[in-house]
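Severity: low
Component: inverse-folding endpoint
Summary: output formatting inconsistent between runs
Steps to reproduce: submit the following structure tokens with default settings.
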């Protein structure tokens, strides 16, 4: 089974993270905003 991921910048951790394209955008924004 193929899995598709996006790479997003996590400012809280200062690194790039791979997230599933099935994850909601809201969840990704919350991940980026957590201190």
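Observed output (run 2 of 3):
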């Amino acid at each position: 089974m193929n899995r598709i991921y996006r790479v997003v910048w996590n400012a809280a951790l200062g690194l790039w993270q791979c997230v599933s394209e099935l994850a909601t955008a809201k969840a990704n924004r919350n991940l980026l905003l957590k201190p």
